[in-house]
Amino acid sequence: MLEKAIRDELRAIVGEKYVLDTPNELYAYSYDATPIFQAMPDAVVMPAGAEEVAAVLKLANAHGIPIVPRGSGTNLAGGTIPVEGGIVLNMNRMNQIYEIDQQNLTATLGPGVVTADLHAAVEAVGLFYPPDPGSMRISTIGGNLAQCAGGMRGLKYGVTKDYILGLEYVLPSGEVLRCGGKNMKDVAGYDMTRLLVGSEGTLAVITEITVKLLPLPESKRTLVAYYTNLVDAAKTVEKVIADKIIPATIEFLDQSTMKVVDDFAKLGLPLEMKSMLLIEQDGPADLVEQDIERIAEIARQQGAAEVKLATTPEEGAKLLAARRSALAALSRLRPTTILEDATVPRSRLAEMVAEVERIAEKYQLHICTFGHAGDGNLHPTCMTDERDQEEIKRVEQAFEEIFHAAIRLGGTITGEHGVGMAKMNYLDLKAGPGGIELMKRIKAAFDPNHIMNPGKMFAGSGRRRVVVKR
Amino acid sequence: MSTAHRGGLAKFNMDEIMNCMHCGFCLPACPTYRETGLESQSPRGRIALMKGVANGQLAIDPEFEKNMYACLGCRACETACPAGVSYGSLVETAREVVEDDKKSGARQPFLRRLMFDHVFPYPERVRAAGTALWAAQSLGLQELANKTGLIRLLPREMAEMQQAVDRIASPKERKQRKPVMQAEGEAALKIGLFTGCVMDVMYFETNQATARLLTKAGCDVVFIEGQGCCGALHAHAGEKEGAIRLAKRNIAACEQADVDLIVNNAGGCGAALKEYHHWFHDHPEWRDRACAFVAKVRDAGELLAELPPLTFTKPLHARVTYQDSCHLAHGQGIRNQPRQLLKSIPGLELAEMNGADSCCGSAGIYNITNFDMSMHILDGKMEHVKETKAQIIATSNPGCLLQMKKGILRAGLEGKVEAVHLMDLLDRAL
């Protein structure tokens, strides 16, 4: 609980209604979409603009109160769990799109805008914001930015960091700063914009975002290929790209994932198959037609048992929607679903999938694998029950081994979910001790009192996967 | 922790609670989350709070009670939930736990006890209340009360909602109903019409229209002796025992009547009738009977869409928009059939409204218990109605119908837009 004086001050800053601290309200912000982690905040504050954010931060900084910025809480690495208590700064009220600039192809908006709403708004004027994280119907653009969210179109279009041009942000001191802007070319000084993207709320609070837009592709086509083994699917991905075709999307689903998704979305998938690829190309109609035919040919050459082209956009959209639901559909199997985010270079995809299968077998766990094959970004997902402590221990051991395997294959511990609490123990595998030391010095420069989202990203300051009760 | 508290907690289905993986897919589907932006007003949040109560981290207190009752129970989240969590039954249990706890502490509001224990369970008392309302209407008392301000004696919420109540049927009309209506031509099916409690008083004519439509479609229609309230309002309000008592009575009455199908025209009642078997999971001797009953239940629109098409003789030249009943769409999965029926009326133009399957805020007695939130949601809904430029709003549930009538008053659309039950609209075109 915060002292009464501080609570009163918070209320004076944002208004009575926007400081929540009753037991139910605090409990409702003690979790995000990450399984197992939970911790209670001391207050939830909902600011309406940069000035209010600045005043809240200044107050928190003076009293050493942790600040955890939060959007819709859909992240999967424990990034918004208030593990050291303090204030959850709920940014949902800052959900206005201020401008869609059709000349410069940019949009400027508040961090609380839901990603799908941004998509709808820009598409209405023939423009395109490519990042499409699986949770985009709920997740906010501020959260996407903090975690550097990816999605299904990463292969051709990149991820969130490739679309953030400019920011307004608030330092713990209360100073409101800007970086970047509408310039496509902008090299004045250190690239603070890139640094803040993916900083997971540990450096500053983002209060305004300018994103880059593209013209909306005029058409798209979807293709699905089924395989009797994993290697042929991986080889298809390699060959397509070696053939100098970059599809917008190449998604991979293994057999167990196919079964669950089919049960949920009733697609009539051939469940005897070992894996499937879902490939989408977009662009000018002629080119799309040409690419998709060529991809179908490659898939057949690489041993696909069946290749099917979606005949209508609706059919294509339905297939992709099913892929989007994979994570949540998997959760029907067991009470707790732990989804991870190992990534390898594209050429090592088949090896990585085989490693995951081997590790699942070794630890006697049910792990399904799906993900963005085109980016080498896999989501090995374990169906378990957090009440079974013994099993959870095996899950942790298995994932540790999976991360080591990813690093060994030249990959990384997370492709798009961020480090948060779930992976801070493995960051050193990727960044090395020198890298971590430098990151900590950067953090200290932004946040000398360590109030910004403490207990995240760096090991030693937090705990491993345990339910925290305060 | 009191014994009552522990007993209440054992009622929570922990596996079902754990099935919620807090992915948040339910958030954009939830009307109360969309209104407030608060996690505690979302399905994900409410399930978390239940978990908190079930594992002893949160108390069963007025705050928990308020959050559980702030839910409309529209179950749009169930449609959105890829993990298949049965949120509707979870929130019913949560309310049951709250009510158990209150009973043990004897903090029961008088009005609630009056309605649940002494009015809804007794069809003759519901009818008597209807007669009193009819008398007030025919004597001009309702209008007088409105004009003189006497209406202010009623609680504000009830006073507000009664303005939307139409003229109800006279006791004489109600008495004239024949117990059986013969099919036109050869009867293919013997139907038991589930008339409901409030429905049969406030919308007596809609039940009659439903019966007429069914006879046209080749069914013998029986008004089953001894049926009464379906128990949905009890179940949604955490009064599980009362709900079960009512369910038993309905099952027994329908067994007696020996009909092929049991048909209703109220989405909310229908969803409850189709869930009777879940209510009896602890009553083995009733379970099979409930399953047999459930197998026979159909919504009137659902059945009419399956039967040979009706012949309409009077075209309806009107633009119509359809407001889904939540418990019909999300609870029973019936979305296309009512639309198909509307489109089959000659001359009628169906104008789909934005968010048609999003709750209108009526939600049983929610528009009385949570009046302000209900009206916020309703006002948003009426904006979408206006966009369609429809002259008629068709619905499939009495609560939604009353709410739409209220919405028309609030939006100043009297005389321009009309709210009509789907069955009445079909009946007009016969």
UniProtKB/TrEMBL annotation, chain A:
<keyword id="KW-0274">FAD</keyword>
<dbReference type="InterPro" id="IPR004113">
    <property type="entry name" value="FAD-bd_oxidored_4_C"/>
</dbReference>
<feature type="domain" description="FAD-binding PCMH-type">
    <location>
        <begin position="37"/>
        <end position="216"/>
    </location>
</feature>
<protein>
    <submittedName>
        <fullName>FAD-binding protein</fullName>
    </submittedName>
</protein>
<keyword id="KW-0560">Oxidoreductase</keyword>
<dbReference type="InterPro" id="IPR016166">
    <property type="entry name" value="FAD-bd_PCMH"/>
</dbReference>
<dbReference type="InterPro" id="IPR016164">
    <property type="entry name" value="FAD-linked_Oxase-like_C"/>
</dbReference>
<dbReference type="InterPro" id="IPR036318">
    <property type="entry name" value="FAD-bd_PCMH-like_sf"/>
</dbReference>
<dbReference type="InterPro" id="IPR016169">
    <property type="entry name" value="FAD-bd_PCMH_sub2"/>
</dbReference>
<dbReference type="GO" id="GO:0016491">
    <property type="term" value="F:oxidoreductase activity"/>
</dbReference>
<dbReference type="InterPro" id="IPR051914">
    <property type="entry name" value="FAD-linked_OxidoTrans_Type4"/>
</dbReference>
<dbReference type="Pfam" id="PF01565">
    <property type="entry name" value="FAD_binding_4"/>
</dbReference>
<dbReference type="InterPro" id="IPR006094">
    <property type="entry name" value="Oxid_FAD_bind_N"/>
</dbReference>
<dbReference type="GO" id="GO:0071949">
    <property type="term" value="F:FAD binding"/>
</dbReference>
<dbReference type="Pfam" id="PF02913">
    <property type="entry name" value="FAD-oxidase_C"/>
</dbReference>
<comment type="similarity">
    <text>Belongs to the FAD-binding oxidoreductase/transferase type 4 family.</text>
</comment>
<dbReference type="InterPro" id="IPR016171">
    <property type="entry name" value="Vanillyl_alc_oxidase_C-sub2"/>
</dbReference>
<keyword id="KW-0285">Flavoprotein</keyword>
UniProtKB/TrEMBL annotation, chain B:
<keyword id="KW-0479">Metal-binding</keyword>
<keyword id="KW-0813">Transport</keyword>
<dbReference type="InterPro" id="IPR012257">
    <property type="entry name" value="Glc_ox_4Fe-4S"/>
</dbReference>
<comment type="function">
    <text>Component of a complex that catalyzes the oxidation of glycolate to glyoxylate.</text>
</comment>
<keyword id="KW-0411">Iron-sulfur</keyword>
<feature type="domain" description="4Fe-4S ferredoxin-type">
    <location>
        <begin position="10"/>
        <end position="41"/>
    </location>
</feature>
<dbReference type="GO" id="GO:0046872">
    <property type="term" value="F:metal ion binding"/>
</dbReference>
<keyword id="KW-0249">Electron transport</keyword>
<keyword id="KW-0677">Repeat</keyword>
<dbReference type="InterPro" id="IPR004017">
    <property type="entry name" value="Cys_rich_dom"/>
</dbReference>
<keyword id="KW-0408">Iron</keyword>
<dbReference type="GO" id="GO:0019154">
    <property type="term" value="F:glycolate dehydrogenase activity"/>
</dbReference>
<dbReference type="InterPro" id="IPR017900">
    <property type="entry name" value="4Fe4S_Fe_S_CS"/>
</dbReference>
<dbReference type="Pfam" id="PF02754">
    <property type="entry name" value="CCG"/>
</dbReference>
<dbReference type="Pfam" id="PF13183">
    <property type="entry name" value="Fer4_8"/>
</dbReference>
<dbReference type="GO" id="GO:0051539">
    <property type="term" value="F:4 iron, 4 sulfur cluster binding"/>
</dbReference>
<dbReference type="InterPro" id="IPR009051">
    <property type="entry name" value="Helical_ferredxn"/>
</dbReference>
<keyword id="KW-0004">4Fe-4S</keyword>
<protein>
    <recommendedName>
        <fullName>Glycolate oxidase iron-sulfur subunit</fullName>
        <ecNumber>1.1.99.14</ecNumber>
    </recommendedName>
</protein>
<dbReference type="InterPro" id="IPR017896">
    <property type="entry name" value="4Fe4S_Fe-S-bd"/>
</dbReference>
<feature type="domain" description="4Fe-4S ferredoxin-type">
    <location>
        <begin position="62"/>
        <end position="93"/>
    </location>
</feature>
